[in-house]
Amino acid sequence: MDAPSELGDFLKSRRAALRPEDVGITPHPTRRRVTGLRREELAMLAGVSITHYTRLEQGRATSASDAVLDALARTLRLTEDETAHLKDLARPSAASRPAPPRVEHASASARQLLAAMTDVPALVLDRRNDVLAWNALGHALLAGHLPSDSPDTPADRPNLTRMLFLDEQYRELYTDWDEEAQLAVASLRLVAGRHPDDRRLAELVGQLTVQCDEFASRWARHPVRTCTSGVKRLHHPLVGAMDLSFENLVIPGTSGQRLIAYTAEPGSPTEAALRLLGSVAASEGSTDEDVSAISRR
Predict the structure, then answer these.
(1) Measured on CA atoms in the order 54, 55, 56, 57, is the torsion positive or negative?
(2) Segments of the chain assigned E as strands
(3) What pTM does this model have?
(4) Is the N end or the C end of the chain the one with fewer CB atoms within 10 Å?
(5) 116 Cβ contact list (under 8 Å, min separation 6)
(6) 123-138: per-residue pLDDT in tens?
(7) Rg of the chain's alpha carbons, rounded to an integer?
């Protein structure tokens, strides 16, 4: 992921999305050949020289001030997440060479916390969405079709973004798959802008771009958005429909690891489904017939 090229592509995508009439420009119906704003129009509206803006879009500018970037963000009507992404791309870290990939692990204390959360599905993820650890209920909720110990072997670790696009059983969990896919790509874009030298992250993006046209088309549109909480609407193959609230909790440190936990509204059908799933997860070797028997009690 080349930061100057990413910056240019991002600016072009947002410039193309802004119609001239949105900013008070009346386009001539027979003379306009570009979609959205022209470079010179954007530069004029932002109060930036056309030369400086062109160098930014072409990836030839060595620096850009906060004032310039904020002016461009206001003119392009960027969100807070998009503005942060713009600054990440415009001023990438000045590492002389990419750091070698480092195998990450969930700490002993994080694993202990997961184990203590017996009634709450929970996982520890790295910034790439690799699953570093999960508790029994988290495994049963999201990936019961995978070995429970798969996060312990780096080569076999599940990656939630990869699974969303390439694992049919995981994909079928999501009632609103399109919305989930868009959010996954937008979140990954934000992380990629912050870590342009992350080789494993680039490999993940490359794999998904090559193997999944749905991912590639979304990635090309440069969506950017962070998501720390919300509701996931699932249809679990064993216990049916579930509406689960989730929270992302950042684990202190520089690794970018986070814990994600899912909860159900008290007294709701989802809470009952989660209890049922927990009963099954607590019994090793449970089958679909076990679930049916418990659900009839």
Answers:
(1) positive
(2) 122-125, 131-134, 229-236, 240-250, 258-263
(3) 0.83
(4) C
(5) none
(6) 999 999 999 999 999 9
(7) 23
The backbone torsions φ and ψ at residue 61, rounded to the nearest 5 degrees and listed phi first, read -85, 135
249 pLDDT more than 90? yes
Distance CA 128, CA 1 (A): 14
- For 78, which DSSP code? -
Q: Indicate if the pLDDT at residue 74 is higher than 90.
A: yes
Cα distances (angstroms) measured from residue 194 to each of 155, 197, 222: 24, 9, 14
Q: Is the pLDDT of residue 31 over 70?
A: no
Give the phi and the psi of residue 155 in degrees, each rounded to 5.
-70, -25
Helix (H, G, I), strand (E, B) or coil at 89: helix
Assess contact for 134 and 151: CB atoms under 8 A. yes
Rounded Cα gap, residues 249 and 224, in angstroms? 20
Which pairs with CB-CB distance under 8 Å and at least 24 residues apart come from 39-48? 39/15, 42/15, 42/18, 42/72, 42/75, 42/76, 45/75, 46/71, 46/72, 46/74, 46/75, 47/71, 48/72
Q: Report the distance separating Cα 130 and Cα 228, nearest Å.
A: 17
> What are the percentages of helix, strand and coil residues in the chain, rounded to 5?
50, 10, 35
Residue 160 CB neighbours (<10 A) = 19
- Confidence (pLDDT) at 30: 57
> Which residues, 6 or more positions from 190, have their beta carbon under 8 angstroms from its beta carbon?
81, 84, 85, 224, 225, 226
Mean pLDDT value of segment 149-166: 95
Strand order in the sheet with 240-250: 131-134, 122-125, 258-263, 240-250, 229-236
Please state the separation of Cα 148 from the chain's center in Å: 23
CA 156 vs. chain centroid, Å, equals 20
Is 245 buried (19+), middle (13-18) or exposed (0-12) by CB count in 10 A? middle
Query: Is 96 a residue whose pLDDT tops 50?
Result: no
pLDDT at 100 over 70: no
